[in-house]
TrEMBL record:
Location relative to the cell: Cell inner membrane
PANTHER family registered for this protein in UniProt: SENSOR HISTIDINE KINASE ENVZ (PTHR44936:SF5), SENSOR PROTEIN CREC (PTHR44936)
Organism, as annotated: Methylobacterium tarhaniae
Source lineage: Bacteria, Pseudomonadati, Pseudomonadota, Alphaproteobacteria, Hyphomicrobiales
Keywords assigned by UniProt, alphabetized: ATP-binding, Cell inner membrane, Cell membrane, Kinase, Membrane, Nucleotide-binding, Phosphoprotein, Transferase, Transmembrane, Transmembrane helix, Two-component regulatory system
Protein name (database record): histidine kinase
Superkingdom of origin: Bacteria
């Protein structure tokens, strides 16, 4: 089944781990780059601010020193800046101890005013730190320069830009991980589809070099497996076919010999061997059930015809539900599957019920009986060739152990699936699901 992208990025999976590693690495790199940018921006802004402060203070003090005393108060508001202001007089008292940042600003003011104006500095904290520079103009008027160091404001659009950047980054990481994992997902799906008797699904040999190389190796492996299975089945079919001639000769000799109980036993044994040979040939051919061309099939008429054939021979086969559906399938293979399932159920239960349902684009044909059933741990084993359950099904009932195996092989060959389960209250349900 194809899984969604979100599911492929689950925390315990390879996709989730790759996503986490790439995300943490890129986020850490982005955070480091942002820190370097902020520090560089702060240093550049500080250098510009100090240079501007030095120049503005020198110009402002020289201007106030040359203005008449009665005009100075009107100029103070014009000289004010967001981070510093001028005040006539000594200003509020402060502490002489300065922080490193305040000391750096004080050095710039000293360079701007010395040697003409000696400057004294102190700091006022209420609640933020303020630096005060005290000096005396040429006419003896005191002047205080109050500096309020503040951080440069962050642009209002910057958080939104960072959020968009993170979203784009996460999307790119997710896309990269998905592209990296897509070949692995396709490879796993191709492996899941490998089943004996079904046409091999070729892995597309496109993409990066590593994917193409893996695809070629996978396709070559499928070809080797198919050749191996085909060779074994051909050997089985050849042996089974060649056994028919000596069996026929043995039957003729026994039938023309002395009649009696011994002859009957020999004929019964030959019948059993001949049935085994026929089933062996049928099993070998069932793997190649896809050779038959698929056609549109009236399933109602098809099953009714099959059931009527059983009625003509006096067998108890009934139909519980039979919708009007027309699937595309291989009729001869489907008939052999249903016949094997019905014969198996009749052999052990004596009565069979067919139930056909259609749901979600799938057709389910159930063959139901009230026989002895199958132990739960053997429900899959009985689909293998030559497997019989002696504890619940006696040899007196006949059978070669190939009927269910042939049905399972043919179901796979026509693109369906055969499953067995015990019914509540006793009996077995053989369920054939057609896509």
């Amino acid at each position: 089944m194809r899984r969604s992208g979100m599911r492929r990025l689950r925390p315990g999976g390879l996709g989730g781990r790759l996503f986490l590693i790439l995300a943490l690495g890129l986020l850490g790199t982005q955070a480091l780059a942002a820190l370097v940018m902020v520090l560089e921006r702060d240093q550049s802004a500080r250098a510009v601010m100090l240079t501007t402060l030095q120049r503005d203070v020198a110009v402002a003090v020289a201007l106030l020193d040359r203005l008449p005393p009665d005009e100075r108060a009107a100029w103070l508001l014009l000289l004010d800046r967001p981070t510093y202001r001028f005040e006539l007089g000594a200003g509020p008292p402060g502490a002489p101890a300065l922080s490193p940042r305040a000391e750096m600003i004080a050095d710039e003011i000293r360079r701007a005013l010395r040697p003409r104006f000696p400057v004294r500095f102190d700091a006022v904290v209420d609640p933020t730190e303020r630096l005060q520079a005290h000096l005396v103009l040429a006419d003896g008027t005191g002047l205080t320069i109050e500096v309020r160091p503040t951080a440069r404001p962050v642009a209002a659009w910057l958080p939104a830009a960072l959020a968009v950047q993170l979203l784009v980054l996460m999307a790119c990481i997710g896309l990269a991980v998905r592209l990296a994992l897509r070949p692995l997902t396709r490879f796993a799906e191709a492996v899941d589809r490998i089943e004996p008797g079904r046409p091999a699904a070729r892995f597309t040999e496109t993409g990066p070099d590593e994917v193409v190389r893996t695809a070629k190796a996978f396709n070559a492996m499928q070809d080797r497996i198919a050749r191996h299975l085909d060779e074994r089945l051909r050997i089985l079919a050849a042996i089974s076919h060649d056994l028919q001639t000596p069996i026929t000769r043995m039957r003729l000799r026994v039938e023309t010999g002395i009649q009696g109980p011994e002859q009957d036993r020999l004929l019964a044994d030959l019948d059993a061997v001949e049935a085994l040979v026929r089933e062996g040939i049928a099993y070998a051919r069932s793997v190649h059930g896809a050779v038959e061309a698929p056609v549109r099939l009236d399933l109602r008429a098809f099953i009714e015809s099959l059931v009527f054939d059983y009625w003509d021979t006096g067998r108890d086969v009934t139909i519980a539900a039979l919708p009007d559906v027309t699937p595309t399938t291989r009729p001869r293979a489907l008939r052999r599957i249903l016949a094997n399932l019905i014969d198996n159920a009749l052999r052990y239960a004596g009565r069979v019920e067919l139930d056909v349902q259609e749901a979600e684009g799938r057709i389910v044909i159930a063959v139901l009986d009230r026989g002895p059933g199958i132990p739960a741990d053997q429900l899959e084993a009985v689909l293998l060739p030559f497997v019989r359950l002696e504890e619940s099904r006696s040899r007196d009932t006949g059978g070669t152990g190939l009927g269910l195996a042939i049905a399972d092989q043919l179901a796979a060959a026509i693109g369906g699936r055969l499953s067995l389960r015990n019914r509540a209250g006793g009996g077995l349900e053989a369920r054939l699901t057609l896509a």
